[in-house]
Structure formats: C-alpha cells, structure tokens
C-alpha cells in the first residue's frame, strides 16, 4: 500500500518493514547508535504541501510531538512557518483545514517560502543490534547528541526515500551532510545499504 511522505503512516510502515526483515537483523547485528535526520524545508516541500494529502501528512507528524515539547519551537523558523499558514503550536494540527491551507500556499508561494527559511522536519531513529527500536518526530534541540546527524534539503531526502538516489552517493556528492563517525559508518556499509533499500521499497503516494 502506498503511503504519503512525509507522514506518520510512512514512519509506521518503515518501522514495520525494517523490523520484519530477517536479512536486516543479520547484517545489523553489530550496529549500535541513532540517527537524527534534519529535513530542511525548501521550495519543493512547499510545492508538495499544495497537495492536501501531503500537507496533512506533514502536519500530522508535527502533531505527534507532545504539546509540552512544542514549547521548543517557540521563536524558531518552524513556528514562523506555522504562523504563516494560520496555525499555532497550541492547536490540534491534525484537524487543520488542509484544503484551505494548501490553497493559501499555492496563492502565496513566495511569502510562505520566505517564512519557511530555516524551518525543518527532524526525524529521530534509534537502532540497536538488529532492532529498529524507535522512530519519532523530534522537537528543536532534541537528540542533538545522536551518533549520526544527516542534514539536507527536503528535495534530496525525498530522492532518498523514493529510491532515486542512495545515501552514500548523496553524502559523497555533498547533497546531504553527514555528521558522525565516518569510520564506523564505512565498516557497517551493509547495514546502511540494507536499511536504505528497505526504505526505498515503500511505495510513496504521489
């Protein structure tokens, strides 16, 4: 079944697919460590958000952050983006009128893009000896001590998620920035490749 990216459904599907794969468990048996993916919202993100389904998925991911943690968004570019969309951190984002908001983005793309400068969607994933233990949306400042941090534009992450490019090529080309122990990463390339292959195997609704 195809799912929207980004969305909670995509995260759930990735979690299930990886944990159900015996080959992944085997090749990742020695892996220890977590990832923080910083998906920088760009022009392509705002084009995709003109699709109410994609916008609903994005807002649903933000809505999964407990309200007490949303205080971390105060004064950040992500809060400014929500305000430009007519939303607040205190609102129930999953109940937003996505059709109206998508229309607003389509009518004011430059204004919304300016408001989105510096905004990101942060996704934290935790792996331990073949187990994919957790995946969640992180608030600003959370999980900054992750073993690895992968940073880049939404458009590039979308290529990775859809299997149009692999992680190593994107990092080597500079399209994604990787922070962390590169030696450890290179010693565990089979784990990285298997995970990204599983991620790319999830059909994405377009």
TrEMBL record:
Gene3D superfamilies: SCP2 sterol-binding domain. InterPro entries: SCP2_sterol-bd_dom, SCP2_sterol-bd_dom_sf. Residues 95-192 form the SCP2 domain. This is SCP2 domain-containing protein.
